[in-house]
Amino acid sequence: MVWDNFQNLLVNLLFGISLITTILYWFSLAIPEIWLFSKISVIGSIFTNVIILGILTTRWIISGYFPLSNLYESLLFLTWCLSTIQIFGEYKTNSKIIGSLICPICLLLIGFSTLILPIEMQKITPLVPALQSNWLMLHVSMMMLSYATLILGSLFSTLFLLIVYLANWSKTNKVNEKQILNADSNALPQQKVNLLNKLDRWSYRTIGIGFPFLTMGIISGAVWANEAWGSYWSWDPKETWALITWIIFASYLHARLTKNWQGEKTAWLGTFGFFIIWICYLGVNFLGKGLHSYGWIS
Description:
Blueprint: H1 2-30, H2 35-63, H3 71-93, H4 97-115, H5 119-122, H6 135-169, H7 177-181, H8 190-229, H9 237-257, H10 264-281
């Protein structure tokens, strides 16, 4: 009971910090001259990351198992993964674009996990028999890492398309892909062209990192399924949508590596993948059918 009350306090604090941090990131992009917005937003991101890590670590110590047993814990872990990737990405690129994309997602995940999910799911409970396996940590953590990384890569693609759309909307002659990638100064301002090329490159690299995590997650899940259910693949809704997600991002990488696609063509694939990830991760949980029953809202 004491831990439940303390956890509620931490989660409420977490939501407040995430909200303020998100607003400050947007301000830092809109008014880059005020450096204080940027500094405080970075500090807010670090606090968010540390608080989530503290909650997960404490649940691990109290329960005795890695905190990925239900949807609530996986939401917190996904939020922590997103926050960690954001902090690392900002350190490497010195760009606040990453934070302005990731922080709203983290805010929504925190709000969903605390306001929508049942209170019973937020409490620490004994591990159900189906999850009492050493594969729990490997399989679920790999899937969450892949979701976090692929979400960021997809957001880069979505922002790329949004900028191109706004540029076309404000001009009589449409800006084509060749003009963007060749930095044609007659088509777009050089600063915007550089940004588009960065987003295209970041999307490719991030999805390239996330795809192996997704592959390892699916393979480890298949091995675990054979151990638990006697079959490597049962066409469970979760398995089916994981395969669809894998195909979408495999198509993205295939198009970049063999067809030399880049820019707007692959950005559409990446954006489509963003929605597929959420169907795979959350959408299936509303169906109430299949073998992954421990994570369903119903």
